[in-house]
Design a protein that fits this description.
InterPro entries: EgtC, EgtC-like, EgtC_Actinobacteria, Gamma-glu_amide_hydrolase, GATase_2_dom, Ntn_hydrolases_N. 24% of the residues lie in helices and 30% in strands. By secondary structure, the chain is of the alpha+beta class. The protein has one domain: 4-Layer Sandwich (Glutamine Phosphoribosylpyrophosphate, subunit 1, domain 1). A seven-stranded antiparallel beta sheet has the order 3-2-4-1-10-9-11. A six-stranded antiparallel beta sheet has the order 5-6-7-8-12-13, with helices on one face.
Length: 263
């Protein structure tokens, strides 16, 4: 499992969100309070953020633990942003230990993180991988379950599906083929979308100013609201909407490239 966080709102430094809170994401790398699977998130970390006027995010990722990276400490202190996504990683057995596997993943202006795991990785997931065409499989960001989930989501986003529908569709696809924990988190710098499926998720809204969505609260202050399991969330600095996530009611998965050619 992993821990992750996304923010939209008034300009802040990453340090204000990740390092300075007493139980922030930085501390969650070695001492998470609510993590249900795994105990330490030291298999990599990443930060993605948006600069004003640029729709494409910048990223800083490493394969080692966040607490050992002095460059991150400096970066988090001086960067200011209105939108970011950050994650610390606890790797699924059998996945690559390299920086490429550290969230956030990025494409087309989106940032993505997966807190969870696909059972049996990589064995038994051939039917799920077959939903992607060969080019999409060859283009996987890393050899890991999170990269496969990201490719499935990106496929739907590029087909024009609204992000909430795309997230629900991916959950439906994955759980049809394997047991999984699927707390997914994605942002384009304007909206945050997330799923709670198998682990904790919280949000904190200051209407008109900011919204924070995180695996667990970074402090014991007021305003943190738990997201029910098996839910999908859409958040902006003005509002948070949470709906039940019921894969049986989701539209059928998008056809694979092979199926499309047959039609």
């Amino acid at each position: 499992m992993c821990r992750h966080l996304a923010y939209l709102g008034a300009p802040v430094t990453p340090a204000e969100l990740l390092v300075e809170p007493p139980y922030g994401l930085h501390r969650q790398s070695w001492s998470p309070r609510l993590q249900r699977f795994g105990t330490v998130n030291a298999d990599g970390f990443g930060l993605g953020w948006y600069a004003d006027g640029d729709p494409l995010p910048a990223r800083y990722r490493q394969a080692g633990p966040i607490w050992s990276d002095e460059n991150f400490t400096d970066l988090a202190r001086v960067v200011r942003t209105r939108a970011l996504l950050a994650a610390v990683r606890s790797a699924t057995v059998g996945t690559t230990p390299e920086r490429s596997a550290a969230a956030p993943y990025a494409a087309d202006g989106w940032l993505f993180s997966h807190n969870g795991a696909l059972a049996g990785w990589p064995n038994g997931l051939g039917a799920l991988a077959a939903l992607l065409d060969p080019a999409e499989l060859l283009g996987l960001a890393a050899h890991c379950d999170s990269a496969l989930v990201w490719a499935l989501l990106l496929r739907r986003l590029r087909a024009g599906e609204p992000v909430e529908q795309a997230l629900a569709g991916v959950v439906a696809e994955v759980v049809e083929h394997t047991e999984a924990r699927l707390n997914l988190l994605v942002t384009d710098g304007r909206v945050i979308a997330a799923t709670a499926w198998g682990d904790t998720l919280f949000h904190r809204l200051e209407p008109g100013r900011s919204v924070l969505v995180a695996s667990e609260p970074g402090d014991d202050g007021p305003g943190w609201t738990p997201v029910p399991d098996r839910s999908v969330l859409l958040a902006t600095p003005d509002a948070v909407v949470v709906r039940p996530l019921e894969p049986s009611r989701v539209q059928p998965p998008l056809p694979s490239r092979k199926e499309s050619l047959i039609r």
